[in-house]
Amino acid sequence: MPQAVTPQEAVGIAATADVDERATIGAGSRVWHLAQIREDATLGRDCTVGRGAYVGPGVVIGDRVKLQNHALVYEPARLGDGVFIGPAAVLTNDEFPRAVTADGRLKSGADWTAVAVVVHEGASVGARAVCVAPVTIGRWALVAAGAVVTKDVPDFALVVGVPARRVGWVGRAGHPLRAAGAGLWVCPETGAEYHETDGRLIEK
């Protein structure tokens, strides 16, 4: 068990998981079969890291986050509380990916600067979606399965496609909102109301 885990008895780490001793895992979190959490990563309370998922060095993850099977979260990503990363989704970190330098030398860590994907509170990234860093996913936004995000996503936005584009709004419950006129949007699940102004959505 990692030395940084507190309390150890409240954390579940599969025997086949690879969790660096310098990582910090919050109470109540679970790390499943073949998952890898690298050095200096921080995982909050009550998180789930699925089979084969990867969390890079120094990545910061909030509380109650779910990383589904084979999700790849590369450093220096930042994930807020309640974030969902779907199966096989990828959060990248290299704007100009190359294995070698211009003169043919194998690149090392010193030859490039990692850039972050930031996912804010409550947002969801669907299965096999790719978020191309640097990019920010707003609060409670929803990135559809298979989408490729190349631009910042506003709070509560529903984005789909390659490249991803906004096709609607979603509420905290994740359901598409229904237009009620005069910039008002309503969640069909909870009845919560939202107001659209200047291309952004705010809770009433």
CATH topology: UDP N-Acetylglucosamine Acyltransferase, domain 1
Could you give the count of β-strands?
26
Which residues sit in consecutive blocks of at least 5 with pLDDT less than 50? 1-8
CATH superfamily: Hexapeptide repeat proteins
Just name the CATH architecture: 3 Solenoid
Binned, the helix content reads under 10%
**Biggest sheet features:** 9 strands, mixed
Shape: globular
Mean pLDDT rating:
94
Strand percentage, roughly? Answer: 25-35%
Strand order of the largest sheet: 1-4-7-10-13-16-19-21-22
Gap between N and C termini: 45 Å
How large is the count of helical segments?
0
H/E element sequence: EEEEEEEEEEEEEEEEEEEEEEEEEE
Text of the CATH class:
Mainly Beta
Number of domains: 1
Overview features:
seven-stranded parallel beta sheet; 33% strand; mainly beta; disordered N terminus; 26 strands; single chain; 204 residues; globular; UDP N-Acetylglucosamine Acyltransferase, domain 1
Helix-strand layout with pairing:
Layout: E1 12-13, E2 18-19, E3 24-25, E4 30-31, E5 36-37, E6 42-43, E7 48-49, E8 54-55, E9 60-61, E10 66-67, E11 72-73, E12 78-79, E13 84-85, E14 90-91, E15 117-119, E16 124-125, E17 130-131, E18 135-137, E19 142-143, E20 148-149, E21 157-160, E22 165-169, E23 178-181, E24 184-186, E25 193-197, E26 200-203
Parallel strand pairs: 1-4, 2-5, 3-6, 4-7, 5-8, 6-9, 7-10, 8-11, 9-12, 10-13, 11-14, 12-15, 13-16, 14-17, 15-18, 16-19, 17-20, 19-21
Antiparallel strand pairs: 21-22, 23-24, 24-25, 25-26
